[in-house]
Specification:
Length: 469
């Protein structure tokens, strides 16, 4: 504004179009408002902390997943509120990397306001001021507790599947051994009887009978376990003479025990009623399985059966039956597994005494079906031996008791007194790896069971002639 030559006041104005600048400022405000709304309402929890890990800001989603309101959080250390000692160490380490401008993603177990353990995935990054200086860190938090639980369930399921697969492999190996072994005896004795009339004797007939009964028992066990697992076993309630049933079952084992010179003691308490209502077949099966195990694993000493009852009321009694033996015993760490299907206390037991490990599992399930329980206590004992005799040749089962065939052949090959002894390895498995291992351990030949006697004779003659020519 100024005076002109006529002393009149003149006004001079400069107009500048700032529409674009105003629009840009408006756009910035809109963007800020947009992202402010996103941050405030997104499902991801946002948390800003200073260089001392003190909370400066938390969006609504973070408050929801943590259970805290913003006023409860502001100014407090995040690690003190949410983290365990281990978590605090991790956060402290992460905060030090923030100073260097590093960003990363990690997961941590935390506790919310209710004290519940949760799992968060955290994406952390440095937080800058307007001058580009690092003033703390900002983290995006996602609650993945459900996913973590699913992950753990999947791990457990995977472990169970792997254990199931191992159990299946073990079962198939055991079945192969258990089926092939009696078959080997049946085929071998039958071939001998066809070749020579002298082989048709009582001893060989006993072997045939024993092997056939073993096969039948194996098949019966498999069918029983299948029926029980499928819920097809029905218990009956009929009067049974308990004293007679127990003595009859025990009497059936007397020949086997007398042959071993093992004493059998049977004690039935005076309070045990003579007549009880129950399933005689299943009770007999239970006692038979328990006694069978006791007899099988006892080579000296005694086997005893002790039966007592506890009167519950006028119509019910609790029956207690204890089967005790002085046999090989069971290692403490195996006591919990012997009642599982296809489990035995030791693989050596399978090789020495046979069996599939089904008997005690069937027994346990039959007892539980009738509302009972089975318990075991035992201590492992040891024996001495599986080395003074001389032999022309040796047929060695790869899975013998106490010391397996592999170790046996290694020791034979190290024994100077047995130099040149022909070794023929026998196995129920046709796996190439097992046969190669047997050859590496000193076997001259490997045969699978059941073997052909003519082939065995051929290999024996070959070994004998090549060793002693």
């Amino acid at each position: 504004m100024h005076l002109n030559s006529k002393s009149e006041i003149e006004l001079t104005a400069l107009a500048i179009d700032i529409s674009e600048r105003k629009q840009a400022e408006m756009n910035v405000l809109l963007q800020e408002e947009k992202y402010r709304n996103i941050i405030a309402n997104m499902n991801l929890g946002l948390l800003e902390v200073d260089m001392d890990d003190r909370i400066q800001f938390a969006n609504q989603s973070f408050c929801l997943i943590s259970g805290y309101e913003l006023p409860e959080l502001k100014g407090k250390k995040a690690s003190d509120i949410f983290m365990s000692d281990e978590g605090k160490q991790i956060i402290s380490k992460k905060n030090r990397t923030r100073i260097e401008g590093a960003s990363d993603v990690y997961s941590l177990p935390v506790k919310n306001k209710k004290g519940e353990q949760r799992w968060w995935v955290i994406s952390g990054a440095p937080r800058y001021n307007d001058n580009g200086e690092i003033v703390g860190s900002v983290g995006i938090h996602l609650d993945v507790t459900e996913q973590k639980s699913l992950e753990e369930e999947l791990k457990i399921a995977k472990l169970k599947a792997e254990e199931s697969s191992k159990a299946k492999e073990s079962f198939l190996a055991t079945m192969s051994h258990e089926i092939r072994t009696p078959l080997n005896a049946i085929i071998g004795i039958t071939d001998l009887m066809q070749i020579s009339n002298d082989a048709r004797n009582d001893q060989n007939l006993d072997i045939l009978s024993f092997s056939a009964k073993n096969l039948l028992a194996l098949i019966s066990d498999i069918l029983d376990i299948s029926k029980i697992d499928a819920g097809k076993i029905e218990l009956v309630r009929n009067p049974m003479n308990m004293h007679k049933v127990v003595h009859s079952i025990c009497q059936a084992f007397k020949p086997a025990l007398e042959e071993k010179k093992v004493k059998l003691d049977v004690t039935i308490g005076s309070e045990v009623p003579e007549i009880l209502i129950g399933d005689e077949l299943r009770f007999s099966q239970i006692l038979n399985n328990l006694l069978s195990n006791a007899v099988k694993f006892t080579c000296k000493g005694s086997v005893s059966v002790l039966m007592n009852t506890e009167i519950l009321d006028d119509k019910k009694v609790r029956l207690t039956c204890a089967v005790t033996d002085s046999g090989i015993g069971i290692a403490t760490n195996k006591l919990k597994t012997i009642f599982e299907a296809f489990e035995q206390a030791d693989n050596k037991i399978v090789r020495q005494f046979g069996g599939t490990g089904l008997g005690l599992n069937i027994t346990k399930k039959l007892i539980e079906l009738q509302g009972g329980i089975i318990q075991v206590s035992s201590k492992l004992t040891r024996g001495t031996t599986l080395k003074t005799k001389q032999f022309d040749a040796a047929l060695i089962d790869l899975f013998m008791p106490e010391m397996d065939g592999f170790e046996t052949m290694k020791r034979i090959r190290k024994n100077k007194k047995l130099t040149g002894l022909p070794l023929i390895a026998l196995t129920a498995s046709a796996e190439v790896t097992l046969m190669n291992k047997a050859l590496e351990c000193g076997a001259d030949r490997c045969l699978t069971k059941p073997f052909n006697p003519q082939i065995l004779k051929k290999y024996f003659i070959w070994s004998y002639e090549n060793t002693y020519d």
